[in-house]
Design a protein that fits this description.
Shape: globular
Number of helices: 2
Strand content: over 45%
Number of strands: 6
Strand order of the largest sheet: 1-3-4-6-5
CATH topology: OB fold (Dihydrolipoamide Acetyltransferase, E2P)
CATH architecture: Beta Barrel
Order of helices and strands: EEEEHEEH
Distance between the termini: 33 Å
Largest sheet: 5 strands, mixed, barrel
Oligomer: single chain
CATH class: Mainly Beta
CATH superfamily: Nucleic acid-binding proteins
Structural class: mainly beta
Helix content: 10-25%
Radius of gyration: 18 Å
Length: 141
């Protein structure tokens, strides 16, 4: 059995670029930022942010272009796709992208707000760090 499935939750890091193929198919692309936070051995907080190229097709592309913007919180479900091509100078280029098959928008008002307001909303999202012990009483459902 084979499986190529990705779930990403993050913030849109670039403006959504919407195009149409020569056959009229809608396609949108954007960058999604995901961050991981932890404490190092000395107890100092650390953070690593990864950027993922997202590609959406057809109606999903139109929905993203219409309702999402830079800074929006979104969950993308999709698959990893690797592509290569030769540029105009004859150099072989490679890219890895996430082809979205489903998306779930975050709470309204996430995109385009002042950073201070976004930080406050981030505090509302519970963070479980690597190595933290989870008590069954802390699970909200």
């Amino acid at each position: 059995m084979n499986l190529n499935k990705v779930f990403l939750i993050g913030r849109i890091a670039t403006d959504i670029e919407m195009k149409s193929t020569p056959t009229g198919q809608s396609v949108s692309t954007f960058s999604l930022a995901t961050s991981r936070k932890w404490k190092d051995k000395s107890g100092q907080p650390q953070e690593d942010t990864q950027f993922h190229r997202i590609v959406l097709w057809a109606r999903l592309a139109e929905i993203a272009s219409q309702f999402l913007s830079k800074g929006s919180l979104v969950m993308i479900e999709g698959r990893i796709q690797n592509r290569n091509w030769e540029d105009k100078n004859g150099i072989k280029r490679y890219t890895t992208e996430i082809v979205g098959e489903n998306l779930q928008m975050g709470p309204k008002g996430q995109g385009g707000e002042a950073p201070k307001q976004q930080e406050k909303q981030d505090d509302d999202i519970p963070v479980i760090e690597d190595g933290d012990e989870i008590d069954i009483k802390d699970i909200p459902f």
